[in-house]
Amino acid sequence: LLRHGLSEANKEDITAGGAIDSPLAPEGHEQALAVAKILLLENMEISRIFHSPMKRAHKTAELANTHIQLDMEPIDTLHEILLGDWEGRPWPEIEPFFNERIAPPNGEDEAQHVLRVRTTIDSILSLDLDAPPLIVAHGGTFHALGLTYGYAMQRINNCHLHYFEPWPE
C-alpha cells in the first residue's frame, strides 16, 4: 500500500475526502519520485499498480512507476472516505469528530467505508496476479484496513509505503 504524496489540501490542512479531488503539491511530486527510487533500488516484485481515480493518488502512482513501468489500473472504489458536510473544512475543526468515530453528516460512516475498502481490496487480491500488487490510495484506506484487521493505524504520512499481508481467508 502507498498513500498519495502531499496534496494541496494536506498542505492547507483542510479535509479532502472523496468529493474533493485535490491535486498533488510540488512536495508531493518529490515524495512520489523518492518512492520511485526506492521501488527501483529494492527491486520489489510487483505485478501491477492499482490506484484511486483521484488526482493525488493517480499522479502519485504515475510518478512512483517512473522506473518500474508497470501496468496501471484505476479502481473507482479506492477513492477516499466521503466526508459529506465536512469536505473542505479545516482539519483541526473536524479531527475531534474523527477521534470519537462520529460519522460525517451526508457522508460515509465508518462501517460503510470499511466495507467498501475491504470489498475493493478483496476484489484486487482475487485476481490471478503473479506477484503482489502496489495499491496507491489514501490515508483512509490504511485506517479502513487497520479496522478490518484489528490494528490501530495512527498517523499515516504522505507517501507512506507499507507492506501489507492480508489474512488468507
Discrete helix count: 6
The percent range for strand residues is 5-15%
Low-confidence stretches: none
Outline the biggest β-sheet: 4 strands, parallel
The rounded Rg comes to 15 Å
* Strand order of the biggest β-sheet: 1-4-2-3
Shape, principal axes of CA atoms? globular
Q: Could you spell the SSE succession in H and E letters?
A: EHHEHEHHEH
The assigned structural class equals alpha/beta
- C-alpha termini separation: 19 Å
| Percent of residues in helices | 40-55%
Number of beta strands: 4
The mean pLDDT is 94
Describe the structure.
By secondary structure, the chain is of the alpha/beta class. A 4-stranded parallel beta sheet has the order 1-4-2-3. Helix 3 links the parallel strand 2 and strand 3. The longest helix has 17 residues. It is globular and about 40 Å long. The model has no long low-confidence stretch (mean pLDDT 94).
Topology diagram in text:
Blueprint lengths: L1 E2 L4 H5 L13 H17 L6 E3 L3 H10 L7 E3 L16 H9 L10 H16 L8 E4 L1 H11 L20
Parallel strand pairs: 1-4, 2-3, 2-4
Helix pairs in contact: 2-3, 5-6
